[in-house]
Amino acid sequence: MRITVTPDTFKLAQVFTISRGSRTEAKVLTVRISDGAHEGWGECVPYARYNETLDSVTEEILSLPGDVTRQALFDLLPAGAARNAVDCALWDLEAKRTGKRVWELAGLKAPGPEITAYTLSLAEPAEMQAQAAKHAHRPLLKIKLGTPDDMPRLEAVRAGAPKSRIIIDANEGWSAGVYADLAPHLVRLGVGLVEQPLPAGEDEALIGMERPVPVCADESAHDRASLPGLRGKYDVVNIKLDKTGGLTEALALKAAALAEGYEVMVGCMVGSSLAMAPATLVAQGAVVTDLDGPLLLAEDRDRPLLFDEAGVHPPTAALWG
Predict the structure, then answer these.
(1) How far apart are CA 31 and CA 209, in angstroms?
(2) Which one of 215, 221, 259, 260 is most buried, counting C-beta atoms within 10 A?
């Protein structure tokens, strides 16, 4: 088999800002695996938060033997972006070889659409209120926060979108004190979930702390090995394929998290429809689906995912799987 890696850049529809910085484009890696008759592909988003770069992830992928299998891949690469793209490409290749959809190969039920969150970028309150008003027709809005002065932003978004469900992603930007001060107001403003309020290395402070709305582990949760460290701190686990290292581990993490009593959220980095396609299978029945990456882009893959009032739909075979 032949493995190739291509860097691709997708322009964003507008500047996207979180507590760690801003961007105007999504830089991804596209992996193609060919056996000479069929070709499977996958996408990953190297993430600086996890010390990944386009070059380092490319090097990891190209270090693999040409005859790599999904089973061998688990031992050859750690959880992360490199393994994700290869794992998803191997699933797609197997689907093309067998003429079956990936969910059939994985023993899953045929997937359907799932309502997805739409993310509002971190900005000044007036701008966030305008963003919220523009997207107030959407049933679920996700707010990027993570500063010591987020209360006006939260109030502004609720004013702009009074009927939408709201979830918050602090991206590790709060202290325990800031979170404790904000918690009662989250209930008042109808917030349904808070993602990663504290830095991953400082989340011991969540043990014993009152959690009036569910708290979701994002940067603190990568794969099944992360689960023991979440006990007593979190109520929900955010599964992202770029963290788990692919669809294979994402499905295993979902099963393990549910078995341990957690609810499951399925999220994404900012990538194209190709990156979201396998995640739609994991998102089936999740308490929150956050696969809006393509909605934030000014351009996307050919034959992109369908987004409509029913949510994000599973991919057609022409895209992936």
Answers:
(1) 43
(2) 221
> What residues form DSSP beta bridges with 126?
none
**Tens digits of residue pLDDT in 218-267:** 999 999 999 999 999 999 999 999 999 999 999 999 999 999 999 999 99
Q: What six digits make up the tokens of 181?
A: 């001060």
Residue with tokens 């956050």: 290
CA atoms of 59 and 104, how far apart (whole Å): 32
- What is the rounded distance in angstroms from the CA atom of residue 32 to the CA atom of residue 164? 39
How far apart are alpha carbons 193 and 216 in whole angstroms? 7
Q: What is the pTM of this model?
A: 0.95
In three-state secondary structure terms, 239 is strand
The two beta strands, 165-169 and 140-144, are parallel
d(CA 196, CA 192): 14
Residue 196, token pair as written in the block: 């990663």
Measured in degrees and rounded to the nearest 5, phi and psi for residue 164 equal: -75, 145
**CB neighbours (10 Å) of residue 148?**
11
DSSP-assigned letters across all residues of 83-123: HHHHHHHHHHHHHHHHT--HHHHTTPPPP--B-B-EEEPP-
Helix (H, G, I), strand (E, B) or coil at 309: coil
Instruction: State residue 70's pLDDT score.
Output: 96
In sequence order, the β-bridge partners of residue 21 are 18
**Token couple for 174:** 């709060």
